[in-house]
Amino acid sequence: MGVIASLEEKVVDVTPGEVATCQLKLHNTGGVVDQFTLDVLGDAKEWVTVSPQTVSVFPGDDATVEVSFAPPRSAKTVRGETSFAVRVMSREDTDGSAVEEGTVRVGGFCEVVAELVPRTARGSRRGRTKLAVDNLGNTPVTVQFSGVDEEGELKFGFGTRVLTVEGGTTRFVPLKLRPRRRFLRGPVRTHAYRVTAQTADGTKTTVDGSLVQPPILPAGAPKLMLLAGAALAVAAIMGPSFLDPKAVSHAETVADAEDSDSSDSGGSSEDGTPSGGTKPDGTASGDGGSPTGGGSSSEQAGAGASSKSPAGTGGSSDSGGGQDVSAQNDDAPPSVEVQSTEFRMETHGAPGVEGKFTTDSYAVDKGQTLRISDIHLENPHKDKGVVEVRRGKKVLLRFALEDITSKQLLFMEPLQFSEGQKVVYALNCTNSDEEECTSSAYFAGRTIKEAS
C-alpha cells in the first residue's frame, strides 16, 4: 500500500513576477480508497503551491495535481537554480508516503529607477546635483547616461557616462550643469532639462530637473557701486584737508619745542636719568643725584611721550608698536583646508525585537571636523521599521522606515562631528514576514582640518 508520485517536468523555468506550472501525477498502489495530503519542502516553499492540497484516489487509479511557481519580482529573489520537493502523505498508510524532488530555474530581471537629488540646482556659472540610480532587480545592470535641454543652453558633465549597478543596490552619479551663456544683470532664468538612464537592452528611464540661473551681479549691486563711487568722490575732495602737510609740520614743531623745554627744565641725562645736581622736585641733592631716573615729573613724562625715546630706555613708541603687531599675528586664526566629503552607509537586519538595531558607522579622522549638510535616505523594498542617524550613541534623527522610499534632507545648519566621533546609521526591522530589511543612507558635506 502507498502512493507513487512523479513530476511531468523535473526542471521548471520561471521569471520573477510571473507564474509557471507543472503537473504532479499520483498513483494509489493500495487496496482501499486513500486520501493524500500534499505540501512543499525546500528553499522555494514560500512561493511554490500545490492545488488541490488534498486528493482522494481509488485503488489502482491515478490523480493529477498542479504545482505552481510564482517567485516575487524582488531583488531578494535569488537568480539561478533552486531545489524543491513535494511531499505526499497517505492517510491510510503513513509508511507509504512519497517525496518527489525537482528543480526550479529562476530567471534574472532588471528594474532601474532614477532620481535627481536635488531636483532643482542653482548657480550663475554652474549647478551641482546627483543622479541616484536604483536597481530593484536581482541581476547587475549596466546603465549609460545622457542629458538634454530643449533650448540647448546647458552643458552636462556626468561623473561617469557608464555605470554598473548590482541588484538591490543604489549608486550615485555626480552631475554638473553649466550654462552656455552668462549674464551680469537681469531676471533669474530657469533651464528645464531631462536626464536619461539607458540599459544595455534599450530600456530608458528619464528624470526631469531644472537649473535656476541668477545673474552674476546681485540685484543691489548697481546701487552699491553708485554708493561706492560717491564715497570715493567725497574722499578725493575732503582727503587733502585731513592730510594737510602744513598741519603735520606744525604738530611736529610743537612736539620738538615741548621736548626741548622738558629737557632743559628736568635736567635729564642722555640715557633718560636725572642729572646729579637736581632732585625730581627741583631741590639740590646732597649725593650727586638719583641713579635710576625713576622720579621724573609729570611734565617730563609728557614731553617724553611726544618725542622719540633715547636708545636703551625700552619705552619708545616704536618698540611698543612692534609688540602690538606681533600679538596680532599670534592671535590670527590658523589656516584650514576644506574638502567636499561624500560617503554611503547601508544596513541589513532581519525582523526581530523592537528596539534592537543593526548599525553601520563612519569615523571622523584625527584633526578633522565633519559637517554634514545633505542626507539622502533610501528604502527601495518598502520595508517596515525604524532608522536613526546618530552621533555616537546620541540619536540626532529618527524616521519610520515605511514612510521612506527616497527621502532627501538638507540642513541650513550642518550636523557637526568632531575628530574621533562616529556617524552611525541604525536600522530596526519590524517586517511582519521573515523578509530582511535593507536601507541605505548617502551623506554629503565638508571636512575641515588645519593646514599643515
TrEMBL record:
Protein name per the record: Cep192-like domain-containing protein
Biased composition (Gly residues): 285-296, 312-323
Organism: Streptomyces spinoverrucosus
Taxonomic lineage: Bacteria, Bacillati, Actinomycetota, Actinomycetes, Kitasatosporales
Domain Cep192-like: residue ranges: 12-79
Annotated Low complexity bias: 263-284, 297-311
Family annotation (Pfam families): Cep192_D3
Region ranges (Disordered): 253-339
One BP term from GO: carbohydrate metabolic process
